[in-house]
Amino acid sequence: MNDFIDKNSIVKKIWGKSDTVLFIFAGAAAEFALNKAVDWLYFTGKLPADPVGRLFSTVTYAQKIIFANTDLALKTIDSISQVHRVVENNRGRPIPDWAYRDVLYMLIHYSISSYETLERKLTLEEKQEVVDVFYKVGSRMQLNNLSSKYTKWLIQRENDMSNDLKKTDFTTDLFKQYKKQLGTMRYCILIEAQKLTIPPKVRQLLGFSRTSLLTFVLPLYQFCRYAGLDNAIKKWLLPKEYQAQIEALDIER
User: Fold this and answer.
1) Model's pTM, two decimal places?
2) Which of 135, 149, 154, 241 yields a CA-CA distance of 20 to 30 A from 105?
3) CA distance linking residue 225 with residue 229, whole number of Å
4) Contact 118, 27 (CB under 8 A)
């Protein structure tokens, strides 16, 4: 059975380490809160009740697809589509196509920015690989107006952020829920991690500074990772109820 994604793809390296996936999670948490369609996630009640868990489910679904064989990956994508159709039926109107695309494009952006924050700059060819993978996912979901080329994706991404992001009462409430669920210290770490990966438009809307305190801590953490101490640090930093899920994110070490 063929893999959905080539075994040597940079995408598997990006999504095979919990460190990178957690940074993807952090950046997506910031942008999620600004999306004009975030009210759809409030409709089910799952997002405000458990924002960390809801975002974890998004990134773990993505990881399952990336490391699955083709048949299983397609079944997983189809199941995601089915879940959203149920929500659409319950609410009585469809989720906008641009909202699906925004989430897909978030995964592209934060895959690239998180890996570059923690590891190294990606080549143009590697960035195109990231776009290729999520383009396959979006095509299976029958999304319209997807960019298949990285250079065109950059332009569309900027346009979509200008049209689809806005700071609202949902934004304020969601960040309050993050703080409530994570606690003050972990919440502060989340904000500093977000500053490292979010695009300028998101930073502007959230009123974040350009400088993150984690910039000065990352070299020390990277040393600890090479020394095999990173798991102990993550257990100390992250909520106990999610530690098993976090450990499961490490597929390629």
Assistant:
1) 0.91
2) 241
3) 6
4) no
